[in-house]
Amino acid sequence: MMRKRTKYGKYALNVFAGLGLVYLFAPIFFIVAFSFNKPKGNFNIAWQSFTFDNWLHPFAEQSLTRALWKSLEIAAISTLISTILGSLIAVALSRYKFRGSEGINLFLVLPLTTPEIVLGSSLATLFLGQNFIDFGMTTIIIAHIMFQVSFVALTVRARIRGFDWTLEQAAQDLGATPLRTFMKVTFPLILPGILAASLLAFALSIDDFIITFFNSGPVQTFPLQIYGASRVRIPPQINVLASMILFFSVAILMTGTIAGMRKSAEKQATAKKFTLLHRK
Amino acid sequence: MTETVVRQNRIARNADRVGMAAMIVASVCLVALGAHWVSGPMVSVVVLVLLLVLGGVLGLAVTGGPEARRLLAPYGLLKPGMLWLALFFLAPVWSLLRISLSTKESRFSVQYNFSWAFQNYATAFRDFGKQFEHAFVYAAIATVLTILIGYPLAYVIAFRGGKYKNILLGLVVIPFFTSYLIRTIAWSTILADRGFVVRAMNAVGIGNVFEWLHIMDNGKLLNTPAAVIGGLTYNFLPFMLLPIYVSLEKIDTNLVNAAGDLYSSASRAFRKVVFPLSIPGVFAGTLLTFIPAAGDFVNAQFLGNPNTTMIGNSIQDQFLKQNNYPVASAMAAVLMVSIATLVLLYTRIFGTEDLA
Q: For residue B106, is it within any domain?
């Protein structure tokens, strides 16, 4: 009796998880499917007929395309700067024991525990009262770096937690200059963590809406353009571009996973060879 | 001659104190400058102090020898990022608080004067009490729902995923590679009044059940509180699921097997072993879900109606449309302080050491 019940319980849980996945993908199916729709009127919300037209002309909506390029530009610049600032913080926190590191740790979490609307509106009050910078690209980039820095610092710190810093000592004992030590030993070893963090920062920047909304001025990013257009018209190109971004990210995710798997397989193979050699 | 050397050595040995003090002083200077705390000739004084402090530390690093350089290194690495956060995170919060206590010269003016105007807070509570209530109630319900959906899903992936674990985890994350706004707009189309979901519900006859549960309202799914909560739940689900998954994944399955060997039933093993060990994940997930959900205005805008607006909608409207910065800032300040208080209380009760 007892065993039977747990068995059913097991199935029930799997079915529930399956339903959860269906729920997660419901709007995604919808977005991709409607990228093949031929809408009547301005709103791509009722299914009319199947067409490849939208995919053949993905950049037909000029304002949308321009906004997407703007978003990519902003994401590239802000990611570059925030990755540098955040990684330096992460290295300081994990490499050195120093006075006040606990305070810094707490301070880094603060922007993450502040609602975006507070971050966005407060930054806007800062820009309102001055004459140095106009609202636009610069203010958006500043805002994005502000929320990216914490994410980068915490991600990189988590990834290099187990790093063996005595390797640096070893390199210097062998006569390497500090610069050479960094370029040849430290940097290559912490690079995967930094890359992962910068991908996250890039994704956060591309998709940010609330903070950007308060600090954009006349500049239209991709999310802002969609928001502004959504009351007047929802062209199918939105779905096409969204699907493209989706497929592109999935491709990156998959190459990352496959590369990771191949690398660990290679490592195992080398380890095996090594042990075999030494057994002889 | 020797005296100066001794003094220099003392400074070099305490270089870490110097480095920390310099960082704090520089941050305070930046906050003061950014938030317009100082004005007139004081601005030049503060700029001078800032430059002197940064120059002084640089000088110490150059002349202080290897010991001082080693002690100063972490502060040097921290400084660029920390000063950025001081100027663009701390200073804005300070200026937000200042503006929340200011009065505008006239309704259409963008000039405001600091005057301890606490009436802004009175206005915020009086006119927007309902929106505060919606924000906290909707966010709380959405957080509970993300636990109910996210926990079993994370559990199945962590313990039954086997070699498909990474693929399953990827599947969970993929939907969130599409834009946040597009996802929300997609939900508004799915739940639309003449959409197939509503039609199917009415055809099968479960519409009345949903009506009774207050999920549907006069045959509508869209533009109801339930739709707003549903949208929040969907959009913030990964913030709950991933931390829970991480904490479940760490659990040593031998512990569960040991419980079974000691004649514990499966459900008892879950209650006594697995669940307690996963609490840090639930804790982090709750913070990561509740905080953004309480400040959100996108879901209420696309999935709600004028009676379901949350505090985020009001702040956005007062700030960007009415140009009523003082009251908008007061609302943002109340939101910030109440969330900080909730987080503190929550940490006290369920306290775990690392938040991030």
A: no
Q: What's the mean pLDDT when you consider all of chain B? A: 87
pLDDT digits (tens, 9 = 90+) for B177-213: 888 999 999 998 888 887 778 877 777 777 777 777 7
B192 and B313 housed in the same domain: yes
Say yes or no: B214 and B302 in one domain: yes
Averaged pLDDT in 10-residue chunks for chain A of 280 residues: 58 89 91 87 77 85 91 96 96 87 88 93 88 90 96 90 84 87 87 90 93 94 91 85 89 78 74 68
Nearest CA in chain B to A245: B178
Tell me whether residue B355 is in a domain.
no
How far apart CA B351 and CA B356 sit, in angstroms, is 13
Of B65, B100, B135, the position where a domain reaches its end is B100
Q: Nearest CA of chain A to the CA of B212: how many Å?
A: 23
Tell which of B70, B100, B130 closes a domain.
B100
User: Tokens 């993450």 map to which residue?
Assistant: A112
- Extended beta strands in chain B, E state: 102-104, 112-114
What domain range is B18 assigned to?
Answer: 2-100
Question: Quick check: B342 pLDDT over 70?
Answer: yes
Q: What is the pTM of this model?
A: 0.89
Name all contacts of A245-252 with Cβ < 8 Å and 24+ positions apart. Answer: A245/A206, A245/B177, A245/B178, A245/B179, A246/A28, A246/A31, A246/A32, A246/B174, A246/B177, A246/B178, A249/A203, A249/B174, A249/B177, A250/B170, A250/B174, A250/B177, A252/A199
Residues B38 and B140 in one domain: no
pLDDT tens per residue, range B197-254 = 887 777 777 777 777 777 777 778 888 999 999 999 999 999 999 999 999 988 888 8
State the number of CA atoms in the 13 A half-sphere of B111 facing the CB.
3
Measure A20 CA to nearest chain B CA, in Å. Answer: 7
Assess whether B205 and B325 both reside in one domain.
yes
Same domain, B248 and B142: yes
Residue B316 lies in a domain: yes
Domain count, chain B: 2
Contact B80 A25 (CB under 8 A): no
List CB contacts of A127: < 8 A, sequence separation 6 or more: A133, A135, A139, A215
Arithmetic mean of pLDDT, B76-93: 94
CATH class belonging to A63-234 = mainly alpha
| B345 and A CB contact within 8 Å | no
The ipTM, to two decimals, is 0.89
Q: Does A64 touch chain B (CB under 8 A)?
A: no
